[in-house]
Design brief:
This protein has about 240 residues and is of the alpha/beta class. The chain contains 8 helices and 5 strands, in the order H-H-H-H-H-E-H-E-E-E-H-H-E. Strand 3 and strand 4 form a beta hairpin.
């Protein structure tokens, strides 16, 4: 996913409003075009703009914008990464934040790990990240958090000076996309397509976090959620 595509995906409302505005402008241009002679005669004005050419340009832009919007909505409907992100936020992140607040934590902070590849979420790599956290003088504790209307969930806490510094989670749900990648590539052994696999994995991870960002904003969780990668620089 390019930077432009990511920007468009996270600002889809701009595309929608652009479509609305261009539709309105197109209708106005058509009306002016149809009644051009009457307007010029009665108001004693002369249009210096070729309304037919302007209508052609406007409708051309409208076709492009509507196609972009259609593709974005299609991606949102069919992308398994988007579906996983929705489940991750609705079934885990949002209930955890709500429960922590109800348990007395005024402004709980939860850091979501952001991998560059699915392999970073395997148990061996997760243990390596935990070891790095310990080297940064964090005390790691896993607690079992009881959630209303849902089963209890385990969540990792990073503690300093006997206080919770932040809660931490590895989105292991992304590992379920390995099967999807193999299905899309239609091969599990051909090393000549390894780059294609890695590109698809990178795109799915990007889609996952684009949707996560969107849902965090819609649920007003910006002050509670942060990200960090394997360098742990955000902690």
């Amino acid at each position: 996913m390019t930077k432009l595509t990511k920007w468009i995906s996270t600002n889809i409302w701009i595309i929608k409003w652009s479509s609305y505005i261009l539709n309105t402008v197109s209708i106005l241009i058509v009306l002016l075009w149809l009644f051009e002679s009457i307007i010029e005669e009665n108001l004693e004005i002369e249009f210096i703009i070729d309304l037919e050419a302007l209508f052609a340009v406007t409708t051309g832009l409208l076709v492009v914008i509507n196609q972009i919007l259609r593709n974005l909505l299609k991606d949102a409907e069919y992308s398994p990464a988007y579906a996983l992100a929705v489940g991750y936020i609705n079934n885990f992140i949002a209930p955890v934040i709500t429960q922590l607040k109800e348990n007395g934590t005024k402004n709980p902070k939860l850091c979501i790990y952001r991998p560059s590849h699915f392999d970073e979420l395997t148990s061996e790599n997760v243990d390596r990240v935990k070891a790095d956290l310990i080297h940064k003088k964090y005390e790691l504790t896993e607690i079992n958090l009881k959630l209303k209307g849902a089963r209890a969930r385990d969540i990792l806490t990073l503690n300093k000076k006997d206080k919770v510094h932040t809660y931490f989670d590895f989105p292991n749900t992304l590992l379920s996309l390995y099967g999807y990648v193999d299905y899309k590539i239609e091969s599990k052994a051909n090393t000549s397509i390894e780059k294609i696999k890695n590109d698809l994995i990178a795109e799915l991870i990007e889609q996952f976090y684009v949707k996560i960002d969107e849902m965090i904003k819609s649920k007003n969780l910006q002050n509670n959620i942060s990200y960090c990668d394997k360098n742990l620089t955000a902690l």
